[in-house]
Amino acid sequence: MKKIIVTPxxxxxxxxYSQAVLSGNxxxxxxxxxxxxxxxxxxxxxxxxxxxLVMENLKAVLAAAGMTFEHVVxxxxxxxxxxxxxxxxxxxxxxxxxxxxxxxxTVEVANLPKYVNVEISVxxxx
Length: 126
Hints:
The chain is an alpha+beta fold. It has one domain (2-125): CATH 3.30.1330.40. 21% of the residues lie in helices and 27% in strands. It is built from two helices and six strands, in the order E-E-E-H-E-H-E-E. The chain has helices spanning 47-64, 85-92; strands spanning 2-5, 20-23, 26-29, 72-79, 103-108, 118-125. The protein has a six-stranded mixed sheet, with helices on one face. Helix 1 packs parallel to helix 2 (85-92). The mean pLDDT is 97. Belongs to the RutC family.
């Protein structure tokens, strides 16, 4: 059985997808980008602040499903410049305990939605 997860504390989807889908005890989030959920506006600023907003959006989606970053077992990070990885990783790492951090891959891509610099999705299990 699948349950669609929706929260006003994360950006409204900009296409035909859900913020997240809960299937059994497993949550699959859509990729989050740096859109301010209060205004719907795209964040423009430095990569660390952009990453923080992405992570806060993920935190809101996880909370809507009754989960936290402790439940995350897998994450995927898409970046448009691998040179930004150290800055992204510095912020990303503050959301996880290094000893129990999830599996992860980071992929450099040519472009991302709305031409953002970073997009992150996670899989979490309760």
